[in-house]
């Protein structure tokens, strides 16, 4: 609304002062952050912190009680946002090949039967290649492993060439190997295709090597900046309102509630302990 | 040719007008059921489909009380029931099964009343037999155009919404994010389901009508990895089962125990069940096969 998001710059997403109240409870309070093209952003917070709500506001599926969201399309028409929802269970009984699901990313919202064309097929083949999914392209989606399904869902979201890719807990239920593969894939896509990637997770550690920016969410508020700026004792203590220690162990970061009694006083012990 | 097949096909089968009507109507209805049923199974709405079938008995039996064709009773009742399910289900987001169950109970109460009135009022069992076992051999040919129209509408809805229906069966969130109006698609689909169940009820009876809807589709899903092919295979299984059922029912005229013939619905449902059993044995683990072969290639 203010139009201050520089139109000439490569800023893709501008979230300004977003507040959300659902059934009388404030889920998000005055959330503001901006994301540029090619940037890889982690949306970090414990379960129930408001990550999904924030993604839904950006998608336009939930109306905020205040604030604005702007997605810069660079003069292009829809779709601007690719989306990978959380916890999709692909039924093994569903007669649908991996390549069919990717193809639906192009025209799944259209009416009538899809008619095969060589252009469409080529587009799907290229996308499958880009997410390294060619080898299981003909398999039934419900029979793929968790990591393979995530790659297909990412391909489905990317094939319409969005400017912004939102992923809700894409690393949940993945083994360590597939987790790393999915993160590397997303980082490569952000870099090579200049897409802004915003990925929500309750564990920031898999993202540490590739994250350009962090949006740390707790109690409906956020802290944002580089990982070093945000994931510090001072910054998180301010965000949580209780003393928080940030411990570096090898390449991992642990966030620990400093004094449990204090946390309990704030009625927030659960969420803090979960972060450990 | 008829001489060669005479042990199977009784004389007069193809020249018999009710048989001709039964073959045409049964075939059309089986195609519609196969197409709609594939999506019923994919969307996990088999229970809703079965409930609509049971609820339809109230409409069919009410039509007899009013003296109109049971098809109109089925269609009216199933559309109302689908609307009620949708309305209750929306108000209670997690209550779809509960909503279906509540509507089902109320409708079966009505069915009991109307069937009672039918039997006591006309002192024949015609209405009960018609509603429970279908009326494929007694359909007046004037009903054929009506059946054709309902068939075109039901199949048309599914074909027009083909891609949005697949997307919403995968995930409502995924579909919404792609601009699909998920609720509207769901309502339109319920209309197609209500019509398909009604058509099926006319051919093989209200109680058994979901067999034609779910059985061929459940079999087809095991045979192919492609949605479109699954619908075609389901339709084919349904048509073959229905035509064989009509033939066997015709043949059964002189069978045990009292020479009155056996109901078509029995044969159709049994054939569908047998095909499903065979597919379970034949295609067990088939769904895993492509993965194993790719693993073998990779290794």
Describe the protein.
- The complex is a heterodimer of chains A (276) and B (299).
- By secondary structure, chain A is of the alpha/beta class.
- Chain A is 32% helix and 26% strand.
- Chain A has helices at residues 51-59, 98-107, 118-130, 146-158, 176-193, 227-230, 233-240, 260-265, 269-275, and strands at 11-22, 25-36, 40-44, 66-71, 81-84, 164-168, 196-201, 213-218, 221-225, 244-249, 252-257.
- In chain A, helix 5 links the parallel strand 6 and strand 7.
- In chain A, helix 2 (98-107) packs across helix 3.
- The longest helix of chain A is centred in the last third of the chain and has 18 residues, at 176-193.
- Chain B is mainly α.
- Chain B has one domain (2-298): ABC transporter involved in vitamin B12 uptake, BtuC (Orthogonal Bundle), CATH 1.10.3470.10.
- Chain B has 14 helices and no strands.
- In chain B, helix 3 packs antiparallel against helix 11.
- The chains are: A alpha/beta (276), B mainly alpha (299).
- At the A-B interface, helix 2 of A face helix 2, helix 8, helix 9, helix 11 and helix 12 of B.
| Number of helical elements of chain A | 9
Global mean pLDDT of chain B: 85
Helix content of chain A: 25-40%
Q: Would you count the extended β strands of chain B for me?
A: 0
| CATH topology heading of chain B | ABC transporter involved in vitamin B12 uptake, BtuC
Tag the structure with descriptive keywords.
heterodimer, A: 276 residues, alpha/beta, Rossmann fold, 2 domains, 3-stranded antiparallel beta sheet, 9 helices, 32% helix, 26% strand, globular, disordered N terminus, disordered C terminus, B: 299 residues, mainly alpha, ABC transporter involved in vitamin B12 uptake, BtuC, 14 helices
